[in-house]
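Support request, priority: normal
Reporter: lab tech (M.K.)
Component: structure prediction queue

Hi team, I submitted a job for UBP-type domain-containing protein from Thamnocephalis sphaerospora yesterday, and the status page still shows it as pending. I've pasted the exact input below so you can check whether something in the sequence is tripping the parser. The sequence length should be 146 residues. Please let me know if I need to resubmit or if it's stuck on your end.
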Amino acid sequence: MADATAQLLAGFAVAPRLDCPHVLALGERLNADLSTLDVTAPCEVCGDKSENWYCLSCGRIMCSRYVQGHMAAHATSGKGAEDEHAVCASFSDLSFWCFRCEDYIEHPLLETCRCALHQLKFGAAPGTEHVSLENNAPPPKGSSSK
Ligand SMILES: [Zn+2]
Ligand SMILES: [Zn+2]
Ligand SMILES: [Zn+2]
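Reply from support: The job had stalled in the queue. We restarted it manually and it finished. Here are the results:
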């Protein structure tokens, strides 16, 4: 069961933070139905499809700092409460990043979301498809995250 997760985590250069308080602030948004989410959707600002993030607060999809940084701009633009738009999920490697903690994060409450994203990206729940994981998930280029 832990194999797929281990493979995903193998891409991390640093150990994720485990005590991000902003996950709790998401509240019931953690239970949002992700079944219609398009994990290949382009950045809503620039249309880039290469490396996008999903904002767990509002569901918007924008590009990473390695593209044009639209998600970072969204998360740090200052509108809303301090704990809003902090946590986002990567469509590239299904990792979670918190823009307030400025770190990769792991949290039990995020596992449902990760499983849903994994299902969408690979067509199966984590741990059930070693082959497709290798076929569909080339390592992110220059995997030096952050
Ligand atoms: Zn945080
Ligand atoms: Zn963009
Ligand atoms: Zn947002």
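Helices lie at 2-9, 22-25, 70-76, 111-122, 130-136. DSSP finds five helices and five strands in the chain. Let us know if anything else looks off. Ticket resolved.
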